[in-house]
Fold these 4 entries.
Entry 1:
Amino acid sequence: MNVFCVGISHHTASVETRERYAGRVFGEDSRAALGCDEVLVLATCNRVEVYASAGKPIATGDIVRFLEDCELPGTKPVDAFYRHDAEGCARHLFRVVAGLDSMVIGETEILGQVKKAYAAARESGNAGGQLHRLFQRAFRVAKQVRSSTDITRGAVSVGSVAVDLAEKIFGDLEERRVLILGAGETSERTARSLCSRGVNDIRVSNRSPERGKDLADLVGGRSIPFQDWREQCREVDILISSTSADEPLLTPSLLAPMLRDRRDRPLFIIDIAVPRDVAPEVNEMDGVYLYDIDALQSIAARSLATRRQQIAAAETIIAEHVSDITARSGQHPRGESPAAVDPPVLEQRAIRASQ
Amino acid sequence: MERQLLLASTLCFLVAVAHTLATLRDGVFRPRRFNFIAIALGFVFQSGFLSVRGHALGRCPITNLFEVFIFLAWSVALIYLLVGPAYRLSLMGAFTAPLVLLIQAFALLAPIDTPHSSRVPANPWLEFHASMSMIAYGAFALACVAGVMYLVQERQLKTHQIHSIFYHLPPLTNLFAAITRLLWLGFGLYTAGLISGFFTGGPLPRVKMICAFAVWIFYGGILQGRHFHRLAPKRIATLCIVAFSAAVSVLWAINFVSQTRPA
């Protein structure tokens, strides 16, 4: 295996440093300029990495200098670059695609970004047989890690926890109606998360109508006069509340008559205001699911803890795959023949590890 | 031969339950096709048993409480295999397998397989009545399973205690829709079974009729409460469990009465 990887990531460099290297375009002449047989660049907001294969040794400095070609004059090169060779490179790539090297452990966006980078390298002719085998294996590893462990389980931000819960109450969110009470920043983020899952009926009610209208425009919703928000509770499925009221705006006695008109439709209330806008007793009412900021944060923290617990299982899967490809490339590090470790066997081992 | 088939079937359901318990013990509940396959295999063995027993009897094998329970377990597995794909497959299996195992294990262990001294003559109306009623019980059992799933999910959402199983359970609204569909299916089949009972030709035992109508009214009441939105979804889920428990108890009473006049 002649592959290697040189790069910087959020572990080794600040965003200012990373963005200096993110803009380098790898054209068809890149391989010749670097002296590599194959080359692929992965540039995301958290990392800039070059994966390459070469028949002769290529110094890390050469890669770094090549990356720096496009940077502004007067900036100094950084020593934040790391290098992984052969199976070390495979292990690193597998960790990256599995989300183990990400800022948020287990995040899945990186897999799409790696796939995109790989497709671009294939299209430009920069990626050949070696990188093809490595990256195809990486995609298999990512799939196996996701299906055999709970590394991607649960949401780890308040907005995504709220969306997960909404989906567990309502299923498809497309037909759901959302009322945002108080146009705060967290409300906006949560509303955006809901929009990303298909919600298209969003109503915003704010004491200051201008700010309410601004937010409504931002999330593609409509503004509702603040004095009418209670009437909306009869219609909406999800209520996101974040006003600065000193007293609870919604109590069981206020909500009870509205629930009578809702028949079997559940009401999901996300109260992110401090002090709280909704009396906690509301959660005891049939069909009402109330989550305050503490409850949401606690679920996010538990999800993160679960993901951390799954790291060992994911690392086991990765180690098995690294051993396998090393064995297949003729190095036989653990005395296993190339055909000795089949993917189903690896999966079984990973399942045992996750248990 | 028939005993071995039944034991093999019970073993399949036992394996499905053990698998579920093992995954729950590890704290990471991950549904797989394992439960579905184990239940399907158990169903094949159940069918084999019922076929052998049916041939021996020369009629549908629902002549004593033992056969009634095996037929009921078979109906539950059948309805699960038919409607299961509409849910998260393996997960509903995780809830269904223990129920089937319980029914079947009871039938195997209790001394209720009492053979009839004389060969029971075949009566198509009677067999239709009994089999429809049993399959309806299968649908009610699945409604009960969906009710348990609903209550588990609802409790997690209410208490904010989110466990691994939460991510594998279907959404509340989908579960409620499933409960409603299963109730209607069971109620339709049960009504057909009840009506066909009047065409069996023989005298209708009073206790049997009262019990059968009590079950019909109970389920009819639940559906009426659902239709007119008089009952909250959580209450309907709870009532599905209560109703099925009551219906199984009633089966006993019906069988007791039928001992003098086999179903």
Entry 2:
Amino acid sequence: MSKPKVAFFDFTSCEGCQLNKLNFENELLGLLDLIEIVEFREAMDDKADHYDIAFVEGSISTPSCVERIHDIRRRSDILVALGSCAVSGGINAMKNLHPTEWVRETVYGDDKYLFPSIPVQPIRAVVKVDYEVRGCPMSTPEYLHIFKSLVLGRKPEIIDYAVCVECKLKENECMLERGMFCLGPVTRAGCDAVCPLNGQYCTGCRGPVSNINEKGAVDMLKRHGLSTREAVKRMKMFCAYEFEKMSETS
Amino acid sequence: MRKNLDIDVHHLTRVEGHGNIVVNMKEGVLEKAQLEIVEPPRYFEAMLKGRNFHEVAIITSRICGICSLGHQMTSLKATEAALGLKISQQTEILRKILVNGSTFQSNVLHALFLAAPDFLNVGSVFPLINTHKDVVLAALRLKRLANEIGEIVSGRAVHPISCVPGGFTKLPTTDELKILQDRLIKEARPDAQFAIDVMGSLTHTIPQFERETEYISVYSDNDYALYDGQICSSDSGCFPVEKYLDITNEFIVPHSSSKHARFNRSSYMVGALARFNNSSKLLHPSAKKVADMLGLKAPSFNPYMITVAQMIEVVHCIEDTVELIEKLLKTGLRDEKPDQEPTRYGRGIATTEVPRGILFHDYTYNKQNMIMAANCIIPTGQNLANIDDDMKKLVPEIIEKPKPDIVKNLEMLVRAYDPCISCSVHMLDVTFNE
């Protein structure tokens, strides 16, 4: 069996997820044995016409991004979105909370027409996405799981329960009990509760679980004297796009 | 003699972010030699507006994955200055260790993974796994250990977790620090030396090109300043950080979604070579030895030597971290809580050396500790005008070479600056009108 041809692409983002995949140095050479990397602009010169698996980082935020992602989709058998920017628009989508023209003018003034910009969208708003790795930065264990599954031709398992589950397993002291405004109860797990593990509250970077227990979450916030308005503001840090869509449909 | 030349390198590879090299010569006249920045702008100001002080570094960290630690440090210092938050000496030492770790990591990534393929005439590091396996393995070990510095001290190498305004939410253990120190001595030292020996055997392939320019970096009399200090210009001396806008003088050019900068001349350089030129006498003795061995003397006017300066800094960061850990182990780690009780509000400005050069964050907070105005000036943006000026001098000097060689020389030049294009188009520089 020939090795799967794999490519990596980046759109509007900090490229931290790309960097993260170079950050498991111990496994890197082993992984390279299983695949053939045919395109990875950040690390190599080569280009290719067809990809068995394309990993895409970043959001869609300019007209040329839209063209490029369609082109990549056409060449790819499987397309995987990597990290919050690609999966949900991530932190970039906070731009959408303000009028586009205001944002452009305040940064570039009269020269705003030199640099076109459109509202930030996740990859799946433009083309079909087969799998998603959430997180800002993307969770490395989850990426490795999806990577290995795809290379083996298996369907990867995707987690859809709250960060609290993983946090309890780590035996962390509850951040809410410690008086911090933690988004763990409504945020999708898969990160091994890495922020609470390091004494920090959950910022909700992986987006909401698909079946939020809304009443339970609101009751719990009340019990700790925290406002739902502040909760929504905080969730809009990484999930502004998802929240916009949720309020449009509800 | 060649009269016409037309070069368009679309989406230059082995750099962070999207840039094109465009050169046009017609009838012997160089009409255009520039690096176009085509990275989509990100508009961070829209993200920060109205955010609480403890959220700000979480957001600005996302300006760039590679420089996330440097953005956090600068962001935290600016917030602390604006709100009057105090940090302990222990916090300062831990932050210096983190800045060392991040410079170490980024410099290794650039010098050994992105730039090295040029010295060996291949298109990426991947073919080197077969031809130069020992070096690749040493480089991977160095990069892993550099990342572990970040993981042990801040919880995560990309977008650190536990550094917050006023201190740390979690401290490393004494054992973790001891093991880290031991590994820096027993593993990183020999691996770095090995990589440097290999680099030493390749320095003859580095293009000989010189253009004197202005060199700007953070400077301190006490140490090779990375974490903190004054602004230093090789042309006109030191300035307090509050004067940064007088130094950077940003301006918009049509071919770049990132703004350009200039001070005493039409352009200036920031980054490893600027730091080396301004502060080489403050390097750790081991790093000075490496500089001698690799033939780099301050001041050096060859931008291709940035990569060499980066490896010298790797040695400095390893040795300095060993010493900083020793300091912490001597006094013992105190269980401190971060100071998060603001005593004032208003404006705070801070500067840090990130791997690619001097970085500024400038915030204004209101009484409710929320961000009202923000400005970040990024090293890559400051280098862009200098890169264009280099290309304008370089192209006529190499015009007789075959076109593929000219393209390679230009690509290597831009790559030498280790540009971080995502950073440069962060677009965070307005006051909110409210």
Entry 3:
Amino acid sequence: MNRIYAFLAACAVALPGMARAEDSPETAWQKVQEAFATAIESGHKSTVALDVKADFRVPPKPAVPEMGNDASNPNYTKRPKSLTSGFVIDTEGHILTSYFNVDGKVKSIKVLFPDGKSADGKLLGVDESKDLAMIKVDPEGLHLHAIEWAEKQPEVGAFVMALGRSPEPASGTATRGIVSAVDRIDQAFNAIWEQSIQFDAKTNYGNSGGPVVDLNGKLVGVVAHVRLISPWGQNSGISFATPNWKIKEVLEKLKAGERLGKPKLPFLGVGPKENSTLVVIGTIQPASAAEKAGLMPGDVVRQIDQVKVGDWGDFTNYIKKKKVGEKVMIKVTRGEEDLDIEATLGERPSNP
Amino acid sequence: MNTHRFIAAALFAAVLSARATADDNAAAALRIEKQIRETCEKVVPAFVFIGGGSGVLISSDGWFLTNHHVAANPQTMQVDALDQTCNLAGGHFYRCEIVGLDPVGDICLGKIKDAHDLPYVELGDSDAVKAGEACIAVGNPFMLGSMDYHPTVTFGTVSANHINANAGYTDVIQTDAAVNPGNSGGPLFSVDGKLLGINGRINTRFSNRVNTGIGYAIPINQIKNFMRDLKKGGYVRHALLEGLQGAATWPDLHAEAEGAVVKSVSAGSTAEKAGFKKGDLIVDVEGHVIHNYWRFMGSLGAYPGGTEIGVKVKRGGETVDIKVTLDKMPRTEFAKMKPDLGATFENLEDGTGVKITKVRSKSDAALKGLKAGDLIVKFNGQAVENAEGLLRSLSKIRPRKIVPLVVKRGEAELDLEIKLEARK
């Protein structure tokens, strides 16, 4: 009998696979669409709309209009009135969303569920630089579907979908795209303070705080950094998500109601030597970790913590993943000598 | 009991089968995803960060393509420095040189110096691209990758091919893959990772320079036509066909659809000599279907001046094949610039060398300390024998290049590096 079961099971799995070779283009496309629809349906069960009443912080207008756009409009930096998005992470009533949605003096939060039910939300913790906020509802009488988390961070090129419930909470929205870059960090120009997933699905204000899911409908991140003012603008195919591993770093703190500011970012204080095909230190910031450790301009960087440094990018990306106060061992060549230099990472100045 | 077992088995199989259908759907989508991921993995290493823009390597010894408006100053349209620097994805730093310039087609060909074994991408066939095909763009929008050297990958559709977009972009691929400022000069790929074109301008409104879903890529087949000239160095010349006029405005153009109507042919012109006649209906250029005069003009933009092309026209009831050697577009002002040392020189009276007679104040030569009376021993690594030879050497170098110079002052020999100026 077991054999028969095994055979039936094998047929059930194998037959559709065997039929694949004869898929017409229509069938192939239908299958792909079904796959997306299944993933979206699964993610939508956990996606909620948020109606936040607040005195929202209004960012100052840019002194110089961005690339000649219409910054003279009085409503330029005013946020559009609309519902935003969030999602259920457990059956106890924790709702995760973006900091953007509660950035200001919050008066009330209404959480609107897919089945038409609603509940008052209480703001717990926030993390400004990761663009995260935790909201709690009383789970009594609610059908809460906790979102499933993807185990791995998606690779560049993987399909992702940004889900939301704005403007109409009863009907979820989905925009599809691919992962454009992972570990995107840009502490100099664009204030992406911590590693984010960049993706090309269109996101607008209503998407902020919604889940980003993969082909299995599992969470890969939270729609983040949808800004009132940004050089890329909304709906430009430049979207960001705070990844699962970053969320997990602070999940318990958010539940505990902590307000997390910008993290202290590690800083060595070196600049590259221009016109050099090796990783050569060109500049040392005064009073920086590099100066204290005794690094010198002209030092050729070979390794950091025994990891080979091939490019300046390897070097700085390694440091960005460390914490302030952590020690790194840098192997450099100075003249004829190989030196091992230990540096204790300092804090990145707010205006480097 | 057996019946129960049979029902249980059937139900179990049905559950498995439904599950299998869902799995099969997911598998179909995952196969597509896998191809995109693998293509990204393959092409991203060949991405070039240059200036605030993008580029892509097309050979292991370092030839790369970018936009002219990335490598050159957008205001003056001049390449400020033929010697530039760039980084590959991951951040490895290289010195490079801008070799070939095509300001009309908005393309520059560069070369990473002393390079070998670099990752590069394969050139595709942009004429074979059809609307609806998936495509992948790689770029550095808003300089997001300038800190971590991860370029941005975006996915979309070819919206149209062979679009005569606007001046210069006469025959482009239109795409809805997100292309933003900073993507300029970066590659557009087919899903299997073949280079289809170089992303350039985008359509926007009210100066809001973000993607609207309309981006243009200069097709790789056009670039292939210019590749030999680009590698030779300096400015390439685009083609013109002198003496042929057609309908230049809508709705005349709209009414054409079947081909481009020749409205007039000037006497003694290239068009007349080639055999074009008033009333001809141009239907084909080198295998490309021509549906109106606008597209006909656009198709010519894909060729360097001096190229012989085959054109099919309908005349009366028959189709006539015409071969025509295209004229060269007049040199633009910036292409007429000549290199200048910033100093005048003459032969020594005894014919034993070349002497600097006057150094222009504020020139780079003056700044670097070149003085009247200095004898020029070597220019750009070559011994200088006489003023005529030096002039010849100068004329072969592009303006704004930095060249090494060895001069003799009294008993001392000095090494100088002087940036050549551009003069009309």
Entry 4:
Amino acid sequence: MRLAFSPLPWFRPARPDIPALQAAGDIDGLVRLLASPDPDVPWQAAGALAGLGTAATGRLLGEIDSLDPGVRLGVVEALGEIGDPAAAVPLLGVLAGDESGEVRWAAALALGNLGGKEAVPSLVQALGDPDKYVRLGAATSLGRLGWEPAGDEERASLLIARQEWGSLRPLGAGAYRPLLRATRDRDPAIRVRAVDALGELGDVQGSEACDLVLRDPDSEVRWRATLALPRCGIAHGRLPMGLVRRPRQGKSPLVAAALNLLFLGLGYSYLDRWYGLVLFQVNLTVIVVASLVWGPFLPYLASYSVSALFAAQTWFSARRGAALAGMG
Amino acid sequence: MTPALLSFFRPGRPDIGALKADGDIPRLIAALRHPDLGVQWEATAALSSLGPEATDQLVRRLPARDRAVKIGIIEALGEIRDPRAVDPLVPYLRDPGAEVRWEAALALGEIGDARAAGPLVTGLRDPDRYVRYGTALALRKLGWTPADDGERALLLLGLQDWAGLAGLGPAAVPALGLALGDREKTVRRKAMEILGEIGSGAAIPAIYRGLRDPDDEVRWQAVCAGPRCGIAPMYLPRGLSRRPRVRKNPAVAGFLNLILPGQGYLYLGRWWGVLVFQVDITATLWLFATAGDQPTYGLLLPIYVILAAHAWYLAGKMPET
């Protein structure tokens, strides 16, 4: 321990003595450390728990539903290291249902460590997980369990999980459905590779897949789709209609101008200009003070005349900006 | 929900086959606005299957407000391949919508009338890469041959044939300079990389522009390309120093927090700035009502100064991304 006494114990808790806890067989103490904010402590605690062997299995299984993903991660790591077959069923539950991608990933790897064949169906299903790390973990574990894909579709899922895009082409139509799933992945880099691979396959089976990739929020995916789809027999002339439906990220000049007309300044705030709110406050203050002197009619009339000028300026400058932020 | 209400949100699939059999052009054009891309494609195919007899009607309906309608009609005219459509289509090469320009270029390529080549060539300089690509494909279809290496470079740029551009050597520099103005950073990166490969002194102004690029990777490529094009490494730091600063301005953050406490934090991306702002307004009103104006200013102004200093300090600590 570096500090025997910390003057601010809440801010800098002393480093726990993990080897001593392990030697004393203090399972509860080690489990508590899995929630430590110190990045080095949880993995050391998980290692110590694993060192306690099957004696710790029961207590660890009791924490597998902890609310803290850090604790669940430590529990799964330790269970994977211990390799007690009793942990297989709870780990299958984690793989299928945990909301944290990292915990599912660890569960996939732990099931490979346990070595029981009963995990194979769930791991095969995890090849379709929305998280690429979980897919990679499942592929690794399936390899360790000596699993062989049953058909082209399963083989394609395995190759996509390992991101071996180049090996997909010989699979032909069998790769289509797994690739279509990959074009919906969260990671734009995966979607780019999936679209490229669809182009190499030379078949997109209908407008739905085209619609999806041409409307992708990522500009690189849309561009690759433009290059890939003509290789799938979609005429070039059909693509603009699909691409025009893409999400537009630019701000609407009309909204900016309307905001500046009605609430002078807020149109600029909408366009991320820092001075928008200042202008809004100044305008309001001037109207309020002027209303005290001349009554409300004249100040509002004057204010809206000024706002109209600002709105027109906003309309033109925002349109210029929108044209620049156009297609991408 | 009643079926009527449901159909308002999710319009049913029109019977394109029946509309086509009736030759019902107005309703086929209406189907171009359908939310389903498959229906839009079917409607376009049905319109083009009506052949040259439909050309006049389609051309008359071209000046539509809806972009999907415009694109669908242009696509159909391209597939009908009636040369009478060339003159009406040419103005759409300058449409404000990039997809419309793209489709118009492709359609003129499909029609295959050599008269379109002249107006199409300007599309090789379009700021949008899709339009440049469509234009290059169309020109190739028309059998157009570039007059010189400069035009050849523009054609290669349209096709995004980077290896071809590198092979052209210094003649490709103006086209690559154009690509450096593209809004897509992957295009700018690639263009800068090729400029470095070519290593021509003619690229020096383009490299200075690249050093000011908002994308760091483009700037890095420019730093690598500079010495190969004959810029002394000594001069690179000055070029780079003029890049756009994306860091939040500490003076603005401090100023905002001084006059509108909390807004400085909001400007720095701290969501609780709006809470500080509201608490300040409430506290100011309450103090005015209970203690009068002098004590209010006396108490709040020093707090505002502290908040301003804090926002200024926070902004200064933020890294430049």
